Inverse folding.
């Protein structure tokens, strides 16, 4: 599902996103802001961290973006993980190529391959973190929401994109610890303050 939802980007954010979109267009790759930034902007929460996923090399895209941004952009490359980070003024931008994960029988070690946006969205922990905002010029601002994360966000629900057993198998230890924190705090409301900042706002109403 693709929706035209107005996200209130600040002038600085819009300028930044246009530059990222320009770099992606010049490389000929679809690119999206995804996850926490999109979720928090829809909730009118301040955020300075943006994750970008592209259907191509996230590292090469980051290099291209840094060139367009100029001297104020510092790129850090994490080749082993296939990711790159740009610190630009108060913003931290993370870049990664879309990935697809599969598993061999009786193994929890994932086989990671290049994938599409949809493949990458399936790897997310919750539907509200799978929302993707296109930054390419032709579809700038369009939100791709295949798992009805917008509905879950409005309803204050945490749902997994796939069947829970499948999603939990795909989660990293860090992401899984966040899930367990949510489950613990839902059973013990007095512990809500202990939730990681990226999750706290979405369980507080429960």
């Amino acid at each position: 599902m693709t929706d035209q939802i107005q996200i209130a980007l600040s002038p600085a954010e819009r300028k930044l996103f246009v530059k990222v979109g320009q770099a992606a267009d010049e490389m000929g790759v679809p690119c999206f802001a995804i996850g926490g930034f999109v979720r928090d902007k829809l909730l009118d929460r301040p955020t300075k961290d943006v994750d970008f996923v592209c259907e191509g090399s996230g590292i090469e895209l980051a290099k291209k973006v840094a060139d367009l941004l100029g001297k104020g952009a510092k790129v850090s490359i994490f080749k082993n993980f296939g990711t790159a980070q740009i610190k630009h003024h108060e913003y931290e931008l993370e870049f990664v190529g879309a990935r697809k994960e599969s598993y061999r029988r009786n193994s929890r070690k994932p086989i990671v391959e290049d994938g599409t946006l949809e493949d990458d969205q399936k790897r997310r922990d919750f539907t509200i973190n799978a929302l993707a905002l296109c930054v390419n010029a032709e579809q700038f601002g369009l939100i791709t929401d295949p798992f009805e994360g917008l509905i879950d966000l409005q309803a204050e629900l945490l749902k997994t994109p796939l069947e829970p057993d499948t999603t939990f198998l795909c989660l990293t230890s860090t992401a899984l610890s966040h899930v367990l924190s949510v489950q613990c705090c839902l059973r013990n409301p007095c512990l809500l303050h202990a939730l990681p900042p990226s999750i706290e706002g979405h369980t507080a109403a429960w």
About this structure: The beta strands are 2-4, 31-34, 49-54, 73-78, 83-88, 91-97, 99-103, 110-114, 132-134, 142-144. The helical segments are 11-27, 36-42, 58-69, 117-122, 149-155, 164-170, 173-187, 197-200. The two ends are 27 Å apart (CA to CA).
